[in-house]
Specification:
Number of strands: 12
CATH class of the largest domain: Alpha Beta
Distance between the termini: 25 Å
Structural class: alpha/beta
Order of helices and strands: HHEEHEHEEHEEEEEEEHH
Cofactor: a divalent metal cation; Mg(2+)
CATH architecture of the largest domain: 3-Layer(bba) Sandwich
GO molecular function: 4-hydroxy-4-methyl-2-oxoglutarate aldolase activity; metal ion binding; oxaloacetate decarboxylase activity
Keywords: Magnesium, Metal-binding
Oligomer: single chain
Helix content: 25-40%
Family: Belongs to the class II aldolase/RraA-like family.
Radius of gyration: 20 Å
Subunit structure: Homotrimer.
CATH superfamily of the largest domain: Ribonuclease E inhibitor RraA/RraA-like
C-alpha cells in the first residue's frame, strides 16, 4: 500500500468510507467497524488512517512478569507506518488500568503512531491532545494500576471489531473501522461517487422540484449508481 492511498482515504469521514466499502460487496454491512462502545476522545483532531499494531493488556491483579511495553514496541517496528496501536484490555471490567497517558503518547508518537484504539481507558487527556495523539477508548480513567502488556502482534477484538496486525484503520469522530486492503486503493473513487450522488439527491430534496411522488425514484437512482459503477450488489 502506498502513502498516497492512505492520504486519499484520509480525505473522507468514516461514514463515507463505510458506505464506499459497502459498494464492493466484500463483507456484510454489519461487520468491519467497532461498536459505539469505542468513543473518539478528541473529535477535533480529525481523521486517522494507519496500519494496526496490536496488543493485549491487563490492569488488575499482580503481574507475573515485568515486560513493560517492550513486546509491543518489538512488534510495532515490524508494522509499516504510519501506525495505529490497537489494544484489547482483557480484564473482566476493562478500563481499570490505563496503558495510555502523557508518557506513552510521547513514546508512540516518536514511533510514528497516530493514536491508540482500546476498549480500556485512557488518561492525561490535555497532554495527549496537545501532542495531537488521538485516543479512541471505552472509557477515561485515573490510574495505570498494574497495567502490563500480555501479548503483541496477535488479532485483537475491540468493540466487536476484530483487528489483525497490518490492517488499515480508518477512524474519526464517528468511530473506528477497518478498510479491506484488497479494495483500499479503489475506495476513494467509490467515495467520490457516493458524495456526488448524495449531493445530487440532497439538492433535489431542497429544490422546488421535490415531490413525494418522485422520492422513491430519486432515492433508487442514488443508491443504484454505485452498484453500476463497481459491478457489485451493495
Amino acid at each position: 500500500m502506498t502513502d498516497n492511498v492512505l492520504a486519499a482515504l484520509a480525505r473522507y469521514d468514516t461514514p463515507t468510507v463505510c458506505n464506499a466499502i459497502e459498494t464492493f460487496d466484500i463483507r456484510s454491512r454489519d461487520e468491519g467497524f467497532a461498536s459505539s462502545e469505542i468513543r473518539c476522545v478528541f473529535p477535533d483532531l480529525g481523521v486517522m488512517v494507519g496500519y494496526a499494531a496490536t496488543a493485549t493488556i491487563r490492569g488488575r491483579g499482580t503481574p507475573e512478569h515485568d515486560y513493560g511495553v517492550e513486546p509491543l514496541v518489538a512488534h510495532l517496528v515490524q508494522v509499516p507506518g504510519p501506525r495505529v496501536v490497537v489494544v484489547q484490555d482483557l480484564d473482566d471490567q476493562p478500563g481499570h488500568g490505563s496503558l495510555w497517558g502523557e508518557v506513552s503518547a510521547n513514546l508512540f508518537t516518536k514511533l510514528d503512531c497516530l493514536g491508540a484504539v482500546t476498549n480500556g481507558c485512557v488518561r492525561d487527556l490535555t497532554e495527549a491532545h496537545d501532542l495531537g495523539f488521538r485516543f479512541f477508548s471505552g472509557s477515561v480513567g485515573v490510574s495505570h494500576a498494574n497495567v502490563r502488556v500480555e501479548s503483541a502482534g496477535e488479532p485483537v477484538r475491540i468493540g466487536g471489531l476484530t483487528v489483525r496486525p497490518g490492517d488499515i484503520i480508518h477512524a474519526d469522530q464517528h468511530g473506528v473501522l477497518v478498510v479491506p486492503a484488497e479494495i483500499a486503493a479503489d475506495v476513494p473513487a467509490a467515495a467520490d461517487r457516493i458524495v456526488a450522488q448524495e449531493q445530487k439527491l440532497i439538492g433535489w430534496m431542497r429544490s422546488p422540484q421535490f415531490s413525494m411522488n418522485g422520492l422513491a425514484d430519486a432515492w433508487r437512482q442514488a443508491t443504484e449508481a454505485d452498484t453500476k459503477e463497481t459491478g457489485n450488489v451493495s
